[in-house]
Design goal:
Elements lengths: L1 H19 L14 E7 L2 E7 L4 H13 L7 E5 L3 E4 L21 E2 L14 E4 L12 E2 L3 E4 L6 H26 L1 H10 L2 H18 L7 H9 L12 E7 L1 H8 L15 E8 L1
Antiparallel strand pairs: 1-2, 1-10, 2-9, 3-4, 4-8, 5-7, 6-8, 6-9
């Protein structure tokens, strides 16, 4: 019995280790418009697939890769169990300790957020950007990108995220109804007819329930977050335009680097070169 228990524990541990080292599985069919790029780093190679349905980001990444724009840039922001970020041209000759992250090619890209089709699972490739306060359109940096590591999620946390998404959709639609029917609401309020006002409110609620299609998250998304992990709190806010198809062991090495208070690795980790495999 003790031997069986030991074998069972070893098997469970091996299953857990295998899952933690798993290569993320592509969640949709590869198309002829997708592209494959190999990123050679000081820690090893990373091969990424660029989605064909985010063409602006795909084409921009391919052009910069072919021009050698990324050659020599640092992974300037590394946070274990979250993500690794690179693409700042100012990092190429940056002295130790210099804060980085503001460099770009001088342009931004229009957001191509296709959530929930593309999401921040383990291994996702996404575009960095400035915050909503200065960038309400959520335009992407012209060059900076990050690769997600994240953490495994519970089924309950994913269900809560799904409910928040549904509530957000309903709230936005309700605010639209309030705006469109503001004159009628003010008239009823001015007349002091509480019964009529409540009846009208119920009428708008009925419209809301009838007209709003409450979104649900794909089962593959839920399973990926549970089995592989990721950063679901970033979903629907940043453009996910690809994923790692080989080399997450390299990403794991990078994310474990010791960093300074600005999350820059103490020892430089660089992109040496990029090679376009297919486009």
């Amino acid at each position: 019995m003790m031997l069986l228990a030991s074998l069972g524990a070893n098997a469970a541990r091996q299953d857990k280790e295998a899952a933690s080292n798993a290569t993320p599985q592509m969640t949709d069919t590869v198309t002829s418009s997708d592209a494959i790029v190999e990123i050679i780093t000081t820690e090893g190679p990373i091969k990424v697939r660029l989605y064909g349905d985010t063409p602006a980001h795909r084409d921009n990444f391919l052009r910069l890769a072919e021009e050698g724009y990324y050659d020599g840039v640092l992974f300037h922001r590394v946070i274990e169990n979250f993500m690794v970020q690179t693409g700042d041209p100012n990092s190429k000759e940056a002295p130790a300790g210099k804060q980085l992250g503001s460099g770009d090619p001088g342009y931004t890209l229009e957001a191509e957020i296709l959530y929930p089709k593309h999401y921040h699972k383990y291994g996702a490739l996404a575009a960095a950007r400035t915050g909503d306060a200065v960038n309400p359109e959520r335009r992407s940096s012209g060059s900076q990108f990050y690769i997600v590591t994240g953490q495994k999620q519970s089924r309950r946390s994913i269900e809560q995220a799904e409910q928040r998404m549904a509530n957000d959709v309903k709230q936005k639609y309700w605010m639209r109804l309030m705006k469109e029917n503001a004159d009628t609401i003010r008239e009823l309020q001015a007349a002091g007819d509480r019964a009529a006002l409540e009846a009208y409110r119920q009428e708008l609620i009925a419209r809301l329930e009838a007209e709003v299609e409450v979104p649900s998250l794909p089962e593959q998304l839920k399973q990926d977050y549970v089995d592989l992990g990721g950063t679901p709190h970033l979903d629907n806010q940043y453009t996910v335009f690809g994923e790692v198809i080989e080399g997450m062991d390299t990403v794991e090495k990078i994310q474990k680097a010791q960093t300074d208070p600005s999350d820059r690795p103490l020892e430089d980790i660089r992109v040496l070169s990029m090679k376009v495999i297919s486009k």
